[in-house]
Specification:
alpha/beta; Aspartate Aminotransferase, domain 1; 2 domains; 370 residues; 38% helix
């Protein structure tokens, strides 16, 4: 007799990582492979953070603090909010999935724009809820007015990825504020800001200030990108105490390991050094974007650490060949067809040398395939 599984299992799309099949992140880091598929920082963690991880490693015989007390305390100081509003998580994905568990159920709906973060479709599939996808504008930006019109009495959860993954486009904080003001109070809005530190149009604190006016708002952040801690998986949410209690109720205990807590706490003490790395990443973004334009390729207006590159009118036909050409040159990028945008590529920024290799290889590939 075969095992009977939950009928929802077959509908869960899962998540496809950017690391090449059969390789670990460590394999990639130790080779000359340009890993430009996962939106990781090209900068290693700060030396002080590495030291904090090393010191914490001596206590691995003990369970981590289940409340992440020190980390939540530092986050409360940085964001000037009560620690009771903060949930720390095993990457920001854990909060998203926990929100689906805590808020959605059969008969309810979750609403988001598309293309957006590829974990979003899992929420409906895992909870038995329905989903509503609202297309981005022609400029690959969230259409907030259309999203408002798509809200129904059954809508429980709205997801806004800002800057958006995979397009990199950004909606200004004042537009987000007007949007949240018009969403019904009984609908939770998760503002997913994994890349917020890379945008230059608003203060990163602008969205956090909305929390005091909207109990249905959740601001989601991560240490993976801006703080170079993708390998330790630590994220957090700023929300009402009720949302924090709800997601904590459906998560496993000790979900954030002790090394991640130590690293993130230490990273928060070095804001000036992190800011310098962000400035370098933004300068490289401008250089690489100019390089794409020099090849004749259009990109969405990015405010993140990656570009959404259109391969032109024949993009859907040549996408696979271009990805293969880049892979042969030791460069891994994310195919758009896997992210809801056939004919496009999502390309993270690496080191200057890696980015130069990318531009040369992409130029050669476009010549062959155009």
């Amino acid at each position: 007799m075969s095992t009977k599984f939950n009928s929802r299992l077959a509908s869960i799309p899962g998540y496809t990582p950017g690391v090449p099949k059969g390789q670990t992140a460590q394999d990639v880091a130790g080779s000359d492979l340009a890993q430009l598929a996962s939106n990781e920082s090209p900068h290693p963690p700060l030396p002080q953070v590495v030291r904090a991880i090393s010191e914490a490693a001596a206590s691995m015989n003990r369970y981590p603090d289940p409340d992440a007390t020190r980390l939540r305390g530092r986050l409360a100081e940085v964001h000037e909010v009560d620690a009771g509003r903060i949930a720390v998580s095993n990457g920001s994905c854990e909060i998203l999935l926990a929100a689906g568990d805590a808020i959605l159920e059969p008969g309810s709906t979750v609403l988001y724009s598309w293309p957006a973060f590829s974990i979003y479709p899992n929420l409906a599939a895992m909870s038995g809820a329905d989903e509503i996808r609202v297309p981005l504008t022609g400029d690959d930006v969230h259409n907030l007015d259309a999203m408002l019109e798509a809200i129904t009495p059954e809508t429980r959860l709205v997801l806004v990825c800002n800057p958006n993954n995979p397009t990199g486009t950004y909606v200004r904080a004042d537009e987000v504020a007007r949007f949240v003001e018009r969403v019904p109070d009984d609908v939770t809005v998760i503002l997913d800001e994994a890349y917020i530190e890379f945008q230059q149009l608003d203060e990163p604190a602008a969205s956090v200030r909305l929390l005091g006016m909207h109990e249905n708002l959740v601001v989601l952040r991560t240490f993976s990108k801006s703080h170079s801690l993708a390998g330790l998986r630590v994220g957090y949410s700023l929300s009402s105490p009720e949302f924090r209690a709800a997601v904590d109720a459906v998560r496993q205990p000790f979900s954030v390991n002790a090394l991640a807590q130590a690293a993130a706490t230490e990273a928060l003490a070095h804001g000036d050094e992190i800011a310098l790395e962000l400035e370098a990443s933004i300068a490289e973004r401008e250089r690489v974007e100019a390089g794409f334009a020099g090849i004749g390729l259009d990109t969405a207006e990015t405010a993140a650490n990656f570009s959404w590159v259109s391969l032109g009118e024949r993009g859907p036909e040549i996408e696979q060949a271009v990805v293969a050409d880049l892979a042969a040159a030791g460069i891994v990028v994310r195919p758009g067809r896997l992210l809801g945008g056939p004919g496009k590529l999502r390309i993270s920024y690496g080191t200057r040398e890696q980015n130069d290799r990318l531009l040369d290889a992409l130029r050669d590939s476009m010549r062959r395939n155009s």
